[in-house]
Design a protein that fits this description.
The two termini are 26 Å apart. The longest helix has 16 residues, at 236-251. The protein contains ten helices and twelve strands. It has two domains: 2-99 and 242-266, Rossmann fold (3-Layer(aba) Sandwich); 103-234, 3-Layer(aba) Sandwich (Rossmann fold), CATH 3.40.50.720. By secondary structure, it is an alpha/beta fold. 48% of the residues are buried. Helices cover 37% and strands 20% of the residues. Helix 1 (16-26) crosses helix 9, helix 5 (101-111) crosses helix 6 and helix 5 (101-111) crosses helix 9 (236-251). The strands form two sheets. It has a six-stranded mixed sheet with strand order 2-1-3-5-6-4, sandwiched between helices. The structure holds 2'-monophosphoadenosine-5'-diphosphate. 2'-monophosphoadenosine-5'-diphosphate (ATR) binds at residues 125-130, 149-151, 154, 185-188. Residues 125-130, 149-151, 154, 185-188 line the site of 2'-monophosphoadenosine-5'-diphosphate (ATR).
């Protein structure tokens, strides 16, 4: 029996057990994926113990992503650049850390079809989620990234740190001219939060608008993009796609991200 799980504080809200559970059942794998409520003070002990209990690896979520990277024996360049890990694999040599939010973000966009990768992208928000999105867009080689945040100093510091083609733009009136992609990584538009107030009129008609928030699935931003006839991608797909690399590593099967998985996670 192969074990894996997700560590967080809180953890009850996590959709990952249902997601991996669906794949385990579909592939008839003798394994289990469990939610583990781990407080920050217990993370190091937990990571030492889990491999001895038979765990092949774990996902980590808020608030453990930076500490998980620090605790790892080795890490991908991508995880280092993002400064956070969400996927840990236990090996004979220790803990391998990766960040699959970045490829998950891109895979979610790619699944919707072609999108303009040869034009600037506009990223709203400069928190932890934005870091993965920015690194992903750099990996994809976008010519320019415009970063907007309520606290402009945070955006400026992040642009400085990540370098390579990131410039800041004001959140109140971001430069949307000739942009091919708009990404909301702020918590605005999330259930219980005010909507993001953004005038999409200057955006070219072939631009893609995406939100990494997935509760609700259709945020006010996505609704207004749709109303303008723009293509939209909701945030649930990023959650589904970021899970696949861990599942493959731990359980040895390449899982499918499809409608059945989406339905299982939403059920
Ligand atoms: P996450 O890990 O999801 O990115 P985070 O690191 O707390 O979460 O970042 C939250 C992001 O949402 C930040 O960019 C934050 O802007 P500030 O840096 O100015 O705090 C943004 N955000 C949260 N509430 C906001 C609000 N009411 N208006 C505008 N931006 C907001």
């Amino acid at each position: 029996m192969i074990l894996a799980g997700v560590l967080g504080d809180p953890i009850a809200q996590s959709k990952s057990p249902r997601l991996h559970g669906h794949w385990l059942a579909r592939h008839g794998i003798d394994g289990a994926y469990v939610p583990l409520h781990v407080r920050p003070d217990d993370l190091a002990d937990t990571l030492r113990l889990l491999p001895r209990l038979g765990f092949a690896g774990v996902n980590v979520t808020i608030p453990h992503k930076a500490a998980a990277l620090a605790a790892a024996t080795s890490a991908t360049d991508r995880a280092r650049r993002i400064g956070a890990a969400n996927t840990l694999t236990f090996t004979d040599d220790g803990i391998e850390a990766d960040n699959t939010d970045a490829p998950g973000f891109l895979a979610n966009l790619d699944a919707a079809g072609d999108w303009p990768t040869d034009r600037p992208a506009v990223v709203l928000g400069a928190g932890g989620a934005a870091r993965a999105v920015l690194v992903a867009l750099q990996e994809r080689g976008l010519p320019a990234i415009r970063l907007a945040n309520r606290t402009e100093a945070t955006a400026a510091a992040l642009a400085d740190e990540l370098g390579r083609g990131i410039a800041t733009t004001p959140l109140a009136a971001p430069d949307l001219a000739d942009a091919g992609l708009v990404v909301n990584t702020t918590s605005l538009g999330m259930q219980g939060q005010p909507p993001l107030d953004l005038d999409l009129a200057p955006l070219p008609s072939d631009a893609l608008v995406t939100d990494i928030v997935y509760a609700p699935l259709e945020t006010p931003l996505l609704a207004s993009a749709k109303a303008r006839g723009l293509r939209t991608v909701d945030g649930l797909g990023m959650l589904l796609h970021q899970a696949a690399p861990g599942f493959r590593r731990w359980f040895g099967v390449e899982p499918m991200v499809d409608g059945a998985l989406r339905a299982a996670v939403l059920a």
